[in-house]
Amino acid sequence: MDERRHASSIPTTVLRDNREQRPWTFDGCVVETRDVTLSTGDYAVPTDCTHDSTSDTYHPQFAVERKSAHDFLTALTWERDRFTSELRRAAEWHHPLAVVVETSWETLLRNRGCMTWRDVHPNQIVGTLSAWTRHYNVAFHFAESRQRAELCAFLLLVRHSLLQRREQN
């Protein structure tokens, strides 16, 4: 295998939505971040985006949406309409919008951590995620810490870049 071709398929730049409240920096990864406006998601790779110079907005064909545990529960409840609008924007993508949640699935289902003071039953979470994955082009990933969620997001971006490269060849 040609090493130059293999190395070039791994992203060196990650676009980060400039509206991110607590952005990931990918410090442990060999990648630079660039703050831009993304139409969908919070993180994307430039080669997978089209750029609208009029609005200075990048439109990805694959992105990662970051959710803290609190944000995730808010998206399931009070901001459900706004979040489902985000999910709809990824409907035409070849690969699902990746939603990476900074808490473990076990924490949510056992009513611990962010769930302790919330009026959301674990069955509501299971039912909602089941419906969303059936009706929208979305995949949920849960990580037990912010650091692991950040690494998960980076690996999803790398994996997608490698798949795109393979599909082009």
Describe, in short, the structure shown.
With 169 residues, the protein is of the alpha/beta class.
Q: Provide the CATH architecture.
A: 3-Layer(aba) Sandwich
Report the helical percentage: 25-40%
Give the C-level CATH assignment.
Answer: Alpha Beta
Number of domains: 1
Strand content: 15-25%
Residue-averaged pLDDT: 88
- Give the strand order of the largest sheet, numbering strands 1, 2, ... along the chain: 3-1-2-5-4
The rounded Rg comes to: 16 Å
- CATH topology grouping: Rossmann fold
- Quantity of strands, as a count: 8
Terminus-to-terminus distance? 13 Å
Please specify the SSE layout and strand pairing.
Layout: H1 3-8, E1 13-17, E2 32-38, E3 43-44, E4 49-52, E5 57-60, E6 64-67, H2 69-76, H3 80-89, E7 97-101, H4 105-109, H5 122-135, E8 138-142, H6 146-168
Parallel strand pairs: 1-2, 2-5, 6-7, 7-8
Antiparallel strand pairs: 1-3, 4-5
What does this structure look like?
The protein has one domain: Rossmann fold (3-Layer(aba) Sandwich). It has six helices and eight strands. The protein has helices spanning 3-8, 69-76, 80-89, 105-109, 122-135, 146-168, and strands spanning 13-17, 32-38, 43-44, 49-52, 57-60, 64-67, 97-101, 138-142. The radius of gyration is 16 Å and the shape is globular. A hairpin with a 4-residue loop joins strand 4 and strand 5. The strands form two sheets. It has a five-stranded mixed beta sheet with strand order 3-1-2-5-4, with no helix packed on it. The model is unreliable at 1-7 (pLDDT under 50). It is α/β, with parallel strands linked by helices and 169 residues long.
